[in-house]
Amino acid sequence: MKVFVTGAAGFIGGSIAAGLVRAGHQVTGLARKPEQLEELAKIGVTGVVGALNDRDLLIAQAQAADAVINAASSDNRAAVVAIVDALSGSGKVFLHTSGSSIVGDASGGEGTDHIYFEDQLPAPTADKAARVAIDELVLAAAGRGVRSAVLCNTLIYGHGALPRDSVQLPRLLKQARKSGIVRHVGRGLNIWSNVHIDDVVDLYLLALEKTEAGAFYFVESGEATFRDMTAAIARALNLGEPQDWSLEQAREEWGYEMASYGLGSNSRVRGQRARTQLGWQPHRPPVLDWIAGDMLR
Ligand SMILES: NC(=O)c1ccc[n+]([C@@H]2O[C@H](COP(=O)([O-])OP(=O)(O)OC[C@H]3O[C@@H](n4cnc5c(N)ncnc54)[C@H](OP(=O)(O)O)[C@@H]3O)[C@@H](O)[C@H]2O)c1
Asked: Which end of the chain lies in a sparser environment, N or C, as judged by fewer CB atoms within 10 Å?
């Protein structure tokens, strides 16, 4: 297939693009900066320079492709509108990358028993309403003749195909290296579902071939508390026990969104649909094993 991937120079998009090429697909990737084209060529991707707000470019590329994967942003509504308009009535696949902070509770590092399933999504908080509305737009595109699906990723760990960091663990690592103390938000009892980037790539490839129109998938293969992850990081770096950080201090370091949701909330989800409908079998090492064995390589 000819696949158009946005965010192709990024952590998720670059890994998906490389996986698609390995599987024999022909990939065109959107990159924001001209200097990223060389990097894309090395993984076999034809790069196109442009931005998500360039509607005409997105429409032209989407229409020239057999399928589109949006991995540049979970929060750019204009790009999703352009891609859906371009694919309307075509029956082509459109996979949109979302993130499971949509169920985040901003608990300040406290834990929860609450687990979310794909058919019982909560009403979003005010902070996450715009992201959820984009997901709904993607799902509704099924009614306009697009084989659209939302892949709602959890905390992704692992090394991507390009030298780009994921969102959460690299921020903890960077802060720890800078200060010599590993920190989590509050008591770090908050829990996130998680998944290895190589298992994520497997899932996008399966969804490209098999997804139903209008399907929402949680992408997860396990979960861990932040306290367990910071303790594993501390051991890997040979540092002392991880320490609590107030939400205010965490916000100063990581900003409101990252401290409240990315690092300080619970996001416990279960993704059955990828396993039952697509036959996805995630099998990479669990997050704590990856931190201990592979993170610093
Ligand atoms: N990593 C995770 O654990 C995770 C989990 C769930 C959801 N998500 C979401 O998935 C999305 C991608 O995540 P990621 O970790 O792959 O991030 P990333 O490494 O920053 O990749 C995003 C890529 O998209 C490009 N991009 C962003 N905005 C763009 C725009 N307006 N026009 C053109 N290109 C644009 C970036 O360009 P530059 O190279 O110029 O920065 C980058 O190459 C984000 O919205 C993230 O919140 C991530």
From this structure: C
Dist. CA 11 → ligand 1 center (Å): 7
Strand order in the sheet with 26-31: 46-49, 26-31, 2-6, 67-70, 93-99, 147-153, 215-219
- List the chain domain ranges: 2-106+115-159+194-221+270-282
The pTM is what? 0.98
* Topology adopted by domain 2-106+115-159+194-221+270-282: Rossmann fold (3.40.50)
Q: Which residue has the tokens 């993607």?
A: 138
Cα of 53 vs centre of ligand 1, distance in Å, is 14
Task: State pLDDT tens for residues 127-182.
Answer: 999 999 999 999 999 999 999 999 999 999 999 999 999 999 999 999 999 999 99
Question: How do residues 216-260 score in pLDDT, each as one tens digit?
Answer: 999 999 999 999 999 999 999 999 999 999 999 999 999 999 999
